[in-house]
Design goal:
By secondary structure, the chain is mainly α. It has a domain at 20-85. It has helices at residues 6-87, 98-114. The chain is rod-shaped. It starts with 5 loop residues before the first helix and ends with a helix. The model has no long low-confidence stretch (mean pLDDT 81).
């Protein structure tokens, strides 16, 4: 996290021992530990609150998006049915265009011959 090695940690401990003394050092350690625990709990609380707020925002948006998707799907079905019956196939829009596929294969073969690849 802080990229502190063993030597740096020992140096920090020695400086703290010299500054605060051997009697106050355990008390200082407890105070720092309690402060770190409170900070961790506060960060967890903030994270939970943010997740709750995001969920409250996300839920109506996803339900609205689902409604829009349903409307688009029904409109597409309304358009596909008359077209497929007029063209005489079950689902013409769902089949790949065979002419385009054949043209693309011919173009690929021509390009490879131009490059000298067989």
């Amino acid at each position: 996290m802080f990229d502190i090695g063993m030597q740096e940690l020992i140096l920090i401990f020695i400086v703290a021992l010299l500054v605060f003394g051997p009697k106050r050092l355990p008390e200082l350690g407890r105070t720092i530990g309690k402060g770190m625990a409170e900070l961790k709990n506060a960060m967890y609380g903030i994270k939970e609150q943010m997740d709750s707020e995001l969920h409250d925002i996300k839920e109506p948006l996803s339900s609205a998006l689902g409604g829009v998707k349903e409307e688009i799907d029904s409109e597409l079905r309304d358009i596909k049915e008359p077209l497929s019956s007029a063209l005489g196939g079950p689902d013409v829009a769902d089949k790949p265009d065979q002419e385009t596929t054949t043209t693309n294969e011919a173009d690929t073969a021509k390009d490879s011959k131009d490059k000298g690849v067989e």
